[in-house]
Amino acid sequence: MHPAYEFFRSFATSGGQFLGWSGDSTLQQQEANALRNAKLTGQFPSPLPTSTASESGSEIAWELSQAWEEELVKLDVKRPSTIKGIDEVADVDEILGSLLPWRLTNEDFLRMNQDESQRKALKRIAEKQLVDLLDHLGF
Q: What are the residue ranges spanned by the domains of the chain?
């Protein structure tokens, strides 16, 4: 596996997860992309922005993400800012996630959420995310 894989699938609650481009039309998307850039470069703004909730309800945790980066630096281990091409790999991972959104392909989630109108709404959201991402990438 690519060394970045753990940063895409793990560390979500610890501030270490690295995501692909997610849009830039809302304030939350712009902030998520600013955090992505900070993780990509290892350079965090000073002072840090206030942590806020994202559209998905998860928090954009600036302090935690910076602390994560600082600890990885101390340990001298691979991190997003030291993995060559991670931004492109993250965008490919984001495309794959948009093609097969877990909320529409995970049997357990679907079994718990059987409302067809909700599923259609999730499909429309996923379609828009995919179109926006492909547009951003020049397709």
A: 1-83, 100-139
